[in-house]
Amino acid sequence: MDAAIAGGADIVDLKDPAKGALGAWEAAALAAAVARWRALPPGGPLLSATIGDHPLEPGALCAAAARVADSGVPLVKIGFALSPATGPETLAACLAALAPLARAHRLIAVLFADLGPDLAAVPAFAGAGFAGVMLDTADKRAGGLRAHLDDRALAGFLAAARAHKLMSGLAGALALADAAPLAALGPDYLGFRGALCAEGRTGALDPARLAAVRAALAYAAAA
Ligand SMILES: O=C[C@H](O)COP(=O)(O)O
């Protein structure tokens, strides 16, 4: 957390990469991080946290999301493992169960580009009261986001999010070289983890790598 703040991250995402794509922090560590974040001077980063990797099962998603939301973290990231095999009733049941939580907390739906999600599901998240949608990848060894979705698909996803007033993000094994082309598509944020670590995704953040991504995003924003 300290390295991300020092490196100028706009959003610090609390996740345990050793536990999976959206591995969750333990409750005590999460509460401590939220308390430290609240004590930061104004103008600091926003804070998000992931709820862990769960199947598309309403009870499991609700319990995990409620636990993270109860910590007071302002953005709660919930992975939806949508694939071509997912029936519409499965997503509908999950969203119906999460809608009450979405009325009290800012929930972000994470879809995994490498699982082949139906990007036409974006309006359903808006309908359930979500605050945002983003793309990520589930299998970090299977290539980055742009290996799974081309610019046209990504632009369509972002346009749908904008049309439904959802915050939008792109992530998924992004490299430094992805910063400019993806920023050009106009997401609200880009998410990086592996590219910021000298010794792999589960390692510590490397200030030099963080600075390089920060500089690339600043350059892209000024272009
Ligand atoms: O939320 C963002 C992603 O999980 C970042 O991780 P990654 O860059 O290692 O894919």
From TrEMBL:
Q: Which UniProt keywords apply?
A: Lyase, Schiff base
Return the InterPro entries for the record.
4HFCP_synth
Q: Does the keyword Transmembrane apply?
A: no
**Does this UniProt record's set of keywords contain Lyase?**
yes
The record's top EC class is lyase
In short, the EC number is 4.2.3.153
Q: Which residues form the active site?
A: 15, 77
Query: Per its record, what are the GO molecular function terms?
Result: lyase activity
List the catalytic activities from the record: 2 D-glyceraldehyde 3-phosphate = 4-(hydroxymethyl)-2-furancarboxaldehyde phosphate + phosphate + 2 H2O
Query: One short Pfam family name for this protein?
Result: 4HFCP_synth
Name the domain of life this protein comes from: Bacteria
Its job: Catalyzes the formation of 4-(hydroxymethyl)-2-furancarboxaldehyde phosphate (4-HFC-P) from two molecules of glyceraldehyde-3-P (GA-3-P).
**What is the protein named?**
(5-formylfuran-3-yl)methyl phosphate synthase
Native source organism of the sequence: Xanthobacter tagetidis
Upper lineage is: Bacteria, Pseudomonadati, Pseudomonadota, Alphaproteobacteria, Hyphomicrobiales
